[in-house]
Amino acid sequence: MADHARAVIIGGGVGGTSIAYHLAERGWTDILLVDRAELTSGSTFHSAGLVGQLRGSVTLTKMMMYGADLYRRLRDETGVDPSWHEVGSLRLASTQARYEELQRQAGWAKTFGLPLELISAREAQERFPLMTTDGVLGAVWLPTDGWLDPSGLAMALAAGARKRGVTIRTHTRVVGIGVDRGRVTGVEIEGRAGERETIAADVVVNAGGMFAPEIGRLAGVTIPIIPMAHQYLFTEAIDGVHAGLPQLRDPDNLVYFREEVGGLCVGGYERHPAPWSVDGVPADFNGRLLQPDPDRLNEVLEGAVRRVPAIADAGVSRIINGPEGFTPDNEFLLGESEVRGFFAAAGFCAHGIAGAGGIGRQVASWIVDGEPELDLWHMDIRRFGGAHWRSREWTLARTAEVYATYYDIHYPNEERQAGRPLRMAPTYGRLADLGAVFGEKSGWERPNWFEPNGDDPRFGGRDALEALRPRGWAGQHWSPAIAAEALATRRDVALFDETSFAKLEVVGPGAVAFLERLCANRVDVPVGRIVYTSMLNSRGGIECDLTVTRVEPDRFLLVTGTAFGQHDLGWLRKHLPESGDGGVQINDLTSGRVTFGLWGPRARDLLAPLTTDDLSDAGFPFLTARPITIGRVPVLALRVTYVGELGWELYAPTEFGPALWDTLVTAGKDHGLTPAGYRAIDALRLEKGYRVWSSDITPDETPYEAGLGFAVALDKEVEFIGRDALVAAKAAGLRKRLRCLVLDDARSVCLGNEPVRVDGAIVGRVTSGGLGYSVEKSIAYAYLPPEAGIGTRGEIDVFGQWIGFEVAREPLYDPAGERVRS
Length: 822
Fold this sequence. Notes:
Blueprint (H helix, E strand, L loop, with lengths): L3 E7 L3 H12 L5 E4 L15 E2 L6 H21 L10 E5 L2 H17 L4 E3 L1 H7 L10 E5 L3 E2 L2 H14 L3 E3 L3 E8 L2 E8 L5 E11 L5 H7 L7 E10 L11 E4 L4 E6 L2 E6 L25 H14 L8 E11 L6 E4 L5 E5 L5 H18 L22 H13 L23 H6 L2 E6 L2 E7 L10 H6 L13 H12 L1 E5 L4 E6 L3 H8 L11 E7 L5 E11 L2 E6 L4 H10 L10 E4 L4 E7 L3 H5 L17 E6 L2 E6 L8 E7 L3 H12 L4 E4 L1 H11 L34 H10 L4 E7 L11 E4 L2 E12 L4 E8 L8 E6 L2 E8 L14
Parallel strand pairs: 1-2, 1-11, 2-8, 4-13, 11-18, 21-31
Antiparallel strand pairs: 3-7, 4-6, 5-6, 9-10, 10-11, 12-15, 12-16, 13-14, 14-15, 17-18, 19-20, 21-27, 22-25, 22-26, 23-24, 24-25, 27-30, 28-29, 29-30, 32-35, 32-37, 33-34, 33-36, 34-35, 36-37
């Protein structure tokens, strides 16, 4: 055994073996994979093995499609048969809402080229004759889905890895992980006989499944995963069941089916989940199952019998009850942690078999290239970077909720409830007294809207505002108050509590050089200037989207979205010089500062009497910042906007928050001030064409494709990350361009991922959409071919109806930008 490995992978399930396989495929051969017992002895061996490709996000669907393609060829490539059965899948709708969900999925599938069909209940029964059509409104059929033997998959991947030089050691525990100055140095392992060795390593991958939290603790890294006991059963042989029978999912009855040796595998997701061993998995729990819990299975069985009556008379040959690792948001947990070189690939949430191929490929790319091929933010370990995720109570509450609602219809803008409230701005009580309807992001309670605003007489009162409610799903989790708040911002002035915005400080003698290397725009500007910029990956894709304010010669304030703070903080820390901080210190100021947005044409009128500072346009221009005093409160004021109106973002130490809020609210009574929430911000930013990172712009798009070329300084003296890729992309010409689409029907509202067609051909998918209340239009954004210019006509599939649109010149509101500079 060598005392050094380029990479050590901990865990021999489908995740670990897939990463080993794909790293070896990329040419890394000095790899050691270790497992505490035998391969597949964690959760892999007792998984049901279903592989469904169409998912709720673009990235996850692409990963599943890659996995299915890999599973088709593994037997021939490795000589080990994963028992791939490409029998197709059916998904039923037993309620109108579920049928609408299927219509939406059918639309998504068109953008991927997946052969998914929306079919009738009778056609579904022709493919799965044992099912009853009682209550079934329709189904979707995807012939390229299938199922396999999970252990066979892991063994095939392991065989492929071994052929390329990977070393695999079983009955080998990792008992220590070395970390020095924030970087992983290797592992200490213990063999079957108790002998110990230290293996130096450049990269360590935690692919430990439900064991991942305790492995993470060895490196000082929090892995928020809860093992949940998941059950399914095998029936004895049933007449009519054959090897070619497709998978069947009936989420309204909480149940799924597949064939197994002439009988059926029957499982599902009950409403009352059973967390297991939340304090740590027992050391001897290898290749073992839990005792069956028939009472907890009854809820699933009742739905199963309703859909497939033959199950009532079938014998049960075996009940499988095994723990599987779930995350608090039901997404994978992947990527490099705050410890450099220490990666995670865990939390597979019962769809890890389907995702294993894609997980292995993306994590291998992340390790080899320094970044994955796809936008993995929704699966990135950094989304759980906040200190509150160290709380077992919080993690357990959120994870139990996502398991219990696994098969629920999740309408856009749905808010999770478990564990709340947790993180509250100092104004929380004041916001609640004003009728705030709170949402949650990164643990923060944030006002989505203020319900009393729905009665605002300036805009005709509740009946008139209610008439603006979007049709269908977009009208769920909506209030007339959203429209009123957006309109009030345009007419008078509104006050937004944005304390949850992530606020990062980069300080030190090396701060300028550090940020110039990371930022695509020039940030070496005079003190008091605000710069809008991207940070790019090596492909020129947008990794971070933020503002950078030079507060002092060697001190910068970076402001980014609530959900992206840990992501952007991780990106910054990842690029610190290896040999120390390089004269740069990065601080997270988020919890130490309140942030209020005061925007609208009367913002200056409200604020000017409260300060002795000059707030005129000449004295305090757009995109500048300075310390001022408002009433009794010292404030850092930034003249910047995300809604497209005159105004300021106001930053103050947390202890001044209530006094600052009260000062502004009291003064605002004479100026039509409206407290407003985040849903109004989203409507206002759509009218102005302001982008949202993770939907409109991602690591897959360049600033030029996103229409953000104005925020790139190719001529600056420092060669920033991604510059070469941008130069090459600019020379080659745009592959696509983000466009503003105005729908013909103002109340048909896009939610994201809807297919877009021009001249009868699918050319893209919607990135984001919503109502622009002041322009009275339904707005969507989508990447289209570069030749689809202003005035291009096309259609968007909105729940099965093709709604016409026209590509519009943006921004739709205040195109000259006169209001923000007034």
